[in-house]
Amino acid sequence: MSDSPDGWAEQLRANRAEKDRFFAEHRQSPIPPAERDGFDGLAYFDPDPAYRVTATVTVHEAPETLDLETTDGPPVRYERVATLSFAIDGTDCELAGYRQPDEEAATLFVPFRDKTTGQQTYGNGRYIELELDGALTDGQEIPLDFNLAYAPFCAYSETFSCPLPPEENWLEVAVEAGERSR
Questions:
Q1: Between residues 105 and 134, which one has the greater pLDDT?
Q2: How far apart, in whole angstroms, are the C-alpha atoms of residue 170 and residue 77?
């Protein structure tokens, strides 16, 4: 994504429009087929560069395996591979980053809840998926853009079962960025 303020926001809006088209038209959309004709796009917070933070990585050399509860069904097994430390509005925060045991090392799954959960955003939390350029290293600084936070498919249809953010990923701040509820 572009680093210039105007280019970044423009690209973010273009990505959101593409996602809206997918949700409205694609056969794998989580929007039930009967509701797609009336679907006019997801709701989003306005792009806000304040929610593009730099996170410092702490790598867990021996990742702990844990089962994340799901919205409907058995728990899903993940490994806690890293802790991301950052600040939002002057508040120090941490989120754990996970991978499924057989998952490629290029993606880090970061489910979270915050003070908007259940009010301005989906009641079971939101996700960020970080695409990484290689292995994480201790002390590495990586971008964490909450403007890319999204509600899982189970927010739109009960046919999906989605992992719930564990309590260690409940933030004590409001993250008014990314997808929001209508």
A1: 134
A2: 19
Indicate whether 87 pLDDT > 60.
yes
Q: Rounded distance, CA 102 to CA 7, Å?
A: 36
Largest Cα–Cα distance in the chain? 49
Q: Which DSSP string corresponds to 51-78?
A: GEEEEEEEEEEEEEEEEEPBSSSS-EEE
Paired residues of 93 in beta bridges? 86
pLDDT of residue 92: 97
Task: Round to whole Å and give the CA distance between 118 and 144.
Answer: 22
Contact status, residue 159 vs residue 134, Cβ threshold 8 Å: no
Q: Which two tokens stand for residue 94?
A: 């941490």
- Alpha-carbon torsion 114, 115, 121, 125, what sign? positive
Whether the Cβ atoms of residue 94 and residue 83 lie closer than 8 Å to each other: yes
The DSSP 8-state label assigned to residue 71 in this structure reads: S
**Residue ranges of domains in the chain:** 50-180
Element (H, E) at 111: strand 107-112
Among residues 54, 18, 38, 83, the alpha carbon closest in space to that of 182 is found at 38
Give me 109's structure tokens.
Answer: 């799954």
Radius of gyration of the chain (CA): 16
